[in-house]
């Protein structure tokens, strides 16, 4: 898969990709370490941001010729399975939008509770005429990822093991891990490297922390105190030169992504939190309904 295609999925419909680009410091080597800025062990972290039963629903809008069109929804869920958390995500376009581009994406990741590192990751993707089934088993001790991959679960084309960096994350595990980081020790303009394993390789990118934004209005939900980020995009087929993706999350213990804005070659995309339930902490960032 070309990087431009991955970015198109990221920017338009595959919200797990879009939300995945938040700060994640990585050690140079070994199985443990601390980030110089946060003082947090990058291979183990105490979860204080989410719990079993949390559910977040997002609405995806596409802008063409100055008109925002509701394109689809993405739902995130968290469940406990013995000593693991199971993250599940379903993304789908609205029926009124499917004449243009139909999406049915399913993501499932299992992580160890103590480290929030993934042991199993499954992607079942249907986007227009493109389909993909990719099941990745992580061995965090051996720094390997075994991928079973094909056009569908019953049409596997390859089975292969890959060497990965220590304490490797996938798309979903990175989202929930970083919700537990202390952003208060970062400065505005700080660039933070991020890494994920997807599509048979480790992806290194940069994310810029923009700082705190007070009283950010979110359509249908009110005003929030937020923290802002700017994930890196790759110029090319789907992104123009100078394009900048923006993301806002709640400035509280939940650190829930509230809104993402991303320009694309034709028009732009906006992803907005629609509803939440089962939060571990109060929505303290919300200051006005």
Per DSSP E runs of 2 or more residues, the count of β-strands stands at 15
Q: Roughly what percent helix?
A: under 10%
Overall pLDDT metric:
80
The number of helices is 3
Return the structural class.
mainly beta
Tell me the series of helices and strands, N- to C-terminal.
Answer: HHEEEEEEEEHEEEEEEE
Number of domains: 1
Strand content: over 45%
Specify the overall morphology.
globular
Please give the radius of gyration in angstroms: 18 Å
Low-confidence stretches: 1-40, 234-239
Distance between the first and last residues' Cα: 43 Å
The biggest beta sheet reads: 15 strands, antiparallel
Describe the structure.
Helix content is 8%, strand content 50%. The protein is mainly beta. It has one domain (3-288). The longest helix is centred in the first third of the chain and has 10 residues, at 3-12. Mean pLDDT is 80; it is low at 1-40 and 234-239.
Descriptive keywords:
289 residues; mainly beta; 15-stranded antiparallel sheet; 15 strands; 50% strand; globular; disordered N terminus
In short:
With 289 residues, the protein is mainly beta. The chain has helices at 3-12, 15-20, 171-178; strands spanning 55-64, 67-81, 84-93, 103-112, 118-127, 130-139, 144-152, 155-163, 191-198, 201-218, 222-231, 246-250, 257-263, 268-277, 286-288.
Topology:
Layout: H1 3-12, H2 15-20, E1 55-64, E2 67-81, E3 84-93, E4 103-112, E5 118-127, E6 130-139, E7 144-152, E8 155-163, H3 171-178, E9 191-198, E10 201-218, E11 222-231, E12 246-250, E13 257-263, E14 268-277, E15 286-288
Antiparallel strand pairs: 1-2, 1-14, 2-3, 3-4, 4-5, 5-6, 6-7, 7-8, 9-10, 10-11, 11-12, 11-15, 12-13, 13-14
């Amino acid at each position: 898969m070309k990087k431009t295609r991955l970015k198109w999925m990221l920017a338009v419909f595959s919200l797990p990709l879009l939300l995945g680009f938040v700060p994640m410091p990585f050690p140079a080597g070994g199985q443990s370490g601390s980030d110089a800025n946060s003082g947090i062990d990058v291979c183990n972290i105490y979860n204080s941001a989410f719990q079993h039963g949390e559910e977040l629903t997002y609405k995806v809008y596409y802008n063409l010729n100055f008109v925002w069109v509701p394109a689809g929804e993405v739902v995130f869920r968290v469940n406990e399975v013995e000593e693991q958390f199971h993250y599940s995500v379903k993304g789908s376009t609205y029926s009124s939008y499917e004449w243009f581009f139909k999406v049915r994406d399913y993501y499932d990741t299992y992580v160890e509770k103590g480290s929030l590192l993934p042991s199993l990751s499954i992607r079942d993707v249907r986007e227009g005429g493109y389909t993909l089934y990719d099941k990745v088993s992580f061995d965090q001790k051996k720094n390997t990822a075994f991928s079973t991959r094909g056009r569908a679960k019953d049409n596997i084309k390859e089975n292969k093991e890959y060497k990965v960096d220590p304490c490797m994350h996938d798309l979903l595990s990175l989202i929930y891990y970083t919700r537990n980081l202390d952003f208060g020790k970062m400065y505005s303009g700080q660039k933070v490297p991020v890494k994920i394993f997807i599509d048979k390789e480790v992806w290194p990118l940069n994310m810029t922390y923009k700082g705190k934004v007070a009283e950010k209005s979110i359509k249908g939900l009110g005003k929030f105190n937020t923290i802002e980020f700017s994930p890196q995009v790759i110029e090319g087929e789907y992104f123009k030169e100078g394009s900048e993706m923006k993301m806002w999350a709640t400035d509280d213990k939940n650190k829930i992504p509230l809104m993402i804005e991303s320009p694309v070659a034709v028009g732009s995309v906006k992803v907005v939190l629609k509803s939440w339930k089962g939060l571990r902490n109060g929505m303290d960032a919300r200051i006005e309904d």
